From TrEMBL:
Record's keyword annotation contains Cytoplasm: no
Residue stretches making up the Ketoreductase domain: 5-178
Keywords: Oxidoreductase
Molecular function GO labels: oxidoreductase activity, acting on the CH-OH group of donors, NAD or NADP as acceptor; quinone binding
InterPro entries: KR_dom, NAD(P)-bd_dom_sf, SDR_fam
SUPFAM superfamilies named among the record's database cross-references: NAD(P)-binding Rossmann-fold domains
GO biological process per UniProt: fatty acid biosynthetic process
Protein name: SDR family oxidoreductase
Protein family per UniProt: Belongs to the short-chain dehydrogenases/reductases (SDR) family.
Entry keyword annotation includes Oxidoreductase: yes
Organism listed in the record: Tessaracoccus antarcticus
Transmembrane segments: none
Length: 236
């Protein structure tokens, strides 16, 4: 049964990742989530892991495999931002975002791929962003890292598709999280004016898309970009 499959979510202690973990747990999956600080939801196996460290990634997978079994669904959600205009962007601003958002995703995908190939089943879901499609001033590093996930997913689809492994991208728009909660009301209103749905999204909107893509009903969907943005990125 798909509901008993093992799911690993990176960055599962807060925001979208935490809600995704709750959604899969409530749907009956066996769920593990990585975190650097904080805690994961009740009923979820928490594993301390920094995705910029391959040794920690390997150790996290080993723990999940020992406690729950091989990872059958991987949701690469861990990400950071270091926003600033390009003229002020330091090498560290660039490298740290790329290392977490892009190379960190590569590290967890690489570790998951071999057991999925042996098991002839896998669902890989990469959490990107509408910013990776539209661009955003002050977020060149973040946008580049998120856009690159599309090429990664489509290459993985071509490489692993014959083994019953899919790889898709979820691209959230402006989601109501702790990050947006601190923005001025005028900024939020400006976002809403650009979004055809007329509202910010909720983490549950993203979690529902991930849950669908992990299920048997999405077995013939791969290499797709699924926008969860209220229509903001149409045409991209």
């Amino acid at each position: 049964m798909q509901e008993s499959r093992v799911v690993l979510i990176t960055g599962g202690s807060k925001g979208i990742g935490r809600v995704i973990a709750e959604y899969f747990r409530d749907a009956g999956y066996r769920v593990a989530a990585t975190h650097r600080t904080g805690s994961v939801p009740e009923g979820v196996l928490g594993v301390v892991c920094d995705v910029t460290d391959q040794a920690q990634v390997d150790a996290a997978f080993t723990t999940v495999e020992a406690e729950l079994g091989p990872v059958e669904v991987l949701i690469a959600n861990a990400g950071v931002t270091k926003d600033t205009l390009v003229a002020r962007m330091s090498d560290d601003d660039w490298n740290s975002v790329i290392d977490t958002n892009l190379t960190g995703t590569f590290r967890v995908v690489r570790r998951a791929a071999r057991p999925m190939t042996r098991g002839r089943f896998g669902r890989i879901i990469l959490v990107s962003s509408v910013v990776g499609l539209l661009g955003s001033p002050g977020q060149m590093n973040y946008a580049a890292s998120k856009a690159a996930l599309i090429g990664m997913a489509r290459s993985l689809t071509r490489e692993l598709g014959s083994r019953n492994i899919t790889c898709n991208v979820v691209a959230p728009g402006f989601i109501d999280t702790d990050m947006t909660a601190v923005l001025p009301a005028a900024t939020i209103d400006g976002y809403k004016a650009r979004i055809p749905a007329g509202r910010l999204g909720d983490s549950a909107d993203v979690a529902a898309a991930a849950l669908f893509l992990a299920g048997d009903g999405a077995g013939y969907i791969s290499g797709a970009v699924v926008p969860v943005d209220g229509g903001l990125g149409m045409g991209h």
